Amino acid sequence: MSSKKGIRTTEAVVIGAGTIGCATAYHLARSGIKTILTDRNTVGSGNTSLAASLLTRIRGKEPIIPLVKETYANIEVLHDEIESRLDISDWGSLHIAASAESSSELQKLVKIAQTHHIGHDHLGQGEVKKMVPWLAVDEVQQALFIPGDAHLDAYVLTQGFAAGAKMYGAEIAQYTHVTGLIMEQDKVKGVESEQGPIYADYVVDAAGAWSNLISLKAGVALPMTPVRSNYWITAKDKELFNADQPIVILPDASAYTRPESGGLLFGLRESNSIHFDPRNLPADLTGYTFGNPGDQWNILMEQGEKLRRFFPMFDQVSIPHYISGVSTYTPDGMFVIGGVPGVKGFLAATGCSGAGVAVSGGMGRIIAEMANGQEPFCDTQPFRPDRFGMIDPFSEEFMVRCAKARSRKTSG
Ligand SMILES: Cc1cc2nc3c(=O)[nH]c(=O)nc-3n(C[C@H](O)[C@H](O)[C@H](O)COP(=O)(O)OP(=O)(O)OC[C@H]3O[C@@H](n4cnc5c(N)ncnc54)[C@H](O)[C@@H]3O)c2cc1C
Asked: Do 127 and 187 fall within a single domain?
């Protein structure tokens, strides 16, 4: 993996080697397009390395489902292509309803599972207790189990996509900071980087939280904002937690959980998620604190009450780890995929809305199909970059709209 200097020419340049950029480079290279994948740091060093990495397949927003299925299909194929297993934990997911509102949402999920031929079982309280001993089953009104739903380490998946891309001939240019776009009238002709220009027919903006800083070099704003996500990890407890427990989705607590290192990883969605102006985010996130140092305790105080209802031992377990980072949210919680309006040859694969690991394979495939002039394998209209019209991505009003999409989210 290189950081060569000098003028280079290729067919596609992908900016950003997070899960999405690596999956995109993998699909481009696999489809026969000569590709250079750039990152100013290293593969997977951005927000990817912070993800909880749930790959839940049943989503209230149905257009997302084919993208997640594609990621599962890619993982299966990658095992053979790179001759290494990606260590996926596929112990299923459990969607819990504990109110009239969440019960009715769960019924909708059942219909969606049927439509998309995703296996699912209704579980009784006894079965739930056996599967998830820490959960207060008296609170459970309905439980829907999705066998085979998985989580993994997003960093490992990202490295897997990068290795796959390389195997198909892509060049992985780490420590290659893209500083500009090379334009000829309304067409992008490549990128300027600190290592020299790279000329290409296609440029893909997969720069995650920093995507707007790239697209604005062509004068186009993408409809997304970096919004904080948080999770905590408890200490090990053999009685309560083990690695083969499923993901648990608790919409009534705005929470999700999964096993992690003998403890429980739990994510809580803030009722007022905080957003960040990408111009103020550092290029290297190492050691960066998203928000104020005391926020993790404030959120636990604010949201913990709702989780305690389902996790009675909440106050007894120690919680040594807190992780926070940003995902890029759009006002409707859908992604930003496809041609950047008004700029030929410029594609966006971003606006991950907290699901970028799960949908990475699907996003990558869409971009490769578009670059090859093919009809995408699924409906891409809901992800069109221009669907909000003209926006100012740095206005407070727009950033708050995006942050609200995070706070409203109830799925995995
Ligand atoms: C706490 C948390 C929990 C999450 N949980 C989940 C989950 O359960 N499931 C799920 O699917 N997703 C989850 N996500 C979201 C997930 O992390 C992202 O959607 C996913 O990793 C995709 O990120 P990305 O590739 O868009 O961005 P990143 O990983 O941030 O990659 C962008 C890359 O672009 C590079 N870059 C930026 N500017 C330039 C430039 N000018 N030149 C060169 N390179 C540049 C950066 O260095 C970076 O490596 C979570 C996120 C967080 C923070």
From this structure: no
Say if residue 140 is in the same domain as residue 235.
Answer: yes
Give the count of beta carbons closer than 10 Å to the beta carbon of residue 249: 27
Q: Pairing state of beta strands 93-97 and 247-250?
A: parallel
* Model confidence pTM above 0.90: yes
Residues 204 and 190 in one domain: yes
Question: Residues near 362 by Cβ (< 8 Å), separated by ≥ 6?
Answer: 66, 67, 68, 69, 70, 71, 378
Residue 10 DSSP symbol:
-
Ligand 1 binding pocket, CB closer than 6 Å = 15-21, 38-41, 45-48, 50-54, 154, 177-178, 206-210, 214, 229, 231, 323-327, 350, 352, 354-358
Give pLDDT tens digits for 112-155: 999 999 999 999 999 999 999 999 999 999 999 999 999 999 99
* Residue 84, in any domain of the structure: no
Q: Say how many C-beta atoms besides its own lie within 10 A of residue 62's C-beta.
A: 14
C-alpha 127 – ligand 1 centre gap (Å): 36
